[in-house]
């Protein structure tokens, strides 16, 4: 992300360099204004692409989290069914044995089910927290990138709007081109 921000900062500056490097642009305020417009359009397109990529990544992460939650719920249901079946089988076989054995088995089964449910809930909560953190980080990065790009575009426009034209008598005339 840092390299993207650096790229977005130096892209308009590179266009500035090209603008002043090719002197024919300096002779025409109209060409200079069009060059600035091209810089602005390129920066806006790059920002839009970055925002679209970020949104797609967030959607993919959300889908993955939902799939993980569904898998976890299915696993919990399967575990509970297996535990219930085991309890029923043990109770049926132990009916002739002492009641204490049945109570111990039931307590063990309940503890196992509670532990599994707590672990599943913890995994789901951690997954949701991770998604929220990722979304917040992505939004902050996008906002920073957009602010940096807007500042850079404003600075580039402010710098490029001053075009130097050499007059017929050798004097230097400064023409300010306002690009909105």
Automatic annotation (TrEMBL):
Keywords: Membrane, Transmembrane, Transmembrane helix. This is Uncharacterized protein. It comes from the Eukaryota. The chain crosses the membrane at residues 6-26, 38-61, 67-92, 99-127, 133-166. It comes from Dreissena polymorpha (Zebra mussel).
């Amino acid at each position: 992300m840092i390299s993207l921000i650096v790229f977005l900062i130096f892209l308009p500056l590179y266009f500035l360099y090209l603008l002043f490097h090719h002197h024919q642009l300096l002779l025409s305020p109209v060409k200079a204004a069009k060059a600035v417009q091209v810089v602005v359009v390129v920066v806006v397109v790059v920002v839009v692409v970055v925002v679209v990529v970020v949104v797609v990544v967030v959607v993919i992460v959300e889908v993955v989290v939902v799939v993980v939650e569904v898998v976890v719920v299915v696993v919990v249901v399967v575990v509970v069914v297996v535990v219930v079946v085991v309890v029923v089988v043990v109770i049926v076989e132990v009916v002739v044995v002492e009641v204490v054995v049945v109570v111990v088995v039931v307590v063990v089964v309940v503890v196992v089910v509670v532990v599994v449910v707590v672990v599943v809930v913890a995994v789901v909560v951690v997954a949701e927290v991770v998604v929220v953190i990722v979304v917040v980080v992505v939004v902050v990065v996008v906002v920073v990138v957009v602010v940096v790009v807007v500042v850079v575009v404003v600075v580039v426009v402010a710098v490029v709007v001053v075009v130097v034209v050499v007059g017929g008598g050798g004097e230097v005339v400064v023409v300010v081109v306002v690009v909105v």
